[in-house]
Amino acid sequence: xxxxxTHGRTSTTRYRTSGxxxxxxxxxxxxxxxxxxxxLVALFKDGYYLVNENQIMVFDxxxxxxxxxxxxxxxxxxxAAIMAGQMWARVLGVIFAFVVAIGHLAFLVAFPLWSVxxxxxxxxxxxxxxxxxxxxxxx
Length: 139
Hints:
This protein is mainly α. The chain has one domain. The protein has four helices and two strands. A two-stranded antiparallel sheet has the order 1-2. Pfam families: DUF7144 (PF23636).
């Protein structure tokens, strides 16, 4: 809640709470956790995925492991900030959801079910972050 004075009168502005933003923060935390798990598995258990390293698009498993681990940690922080009602986190949440969905398209050959699930959650996250009314908060 904020208070401002205009021409001698004090007005109080109340932010509307949004279940969508609380949901979006939770989904961002889940996607971040999924990406951390992806990263750790790619770094420490090479034989887990369905294809050889030379069949995965763009990078080898070690590079993918570090990419997913770093993005996952950032997404967990963004998810917490979304739940705290930070507008910058909503913007970063949409950007990271888009990047992760595209990244999982490249990773689709390695682990199809996990990638399809993560892409679906990213689409849901983008909707949840863009659907709430302006000025709404997750608390």
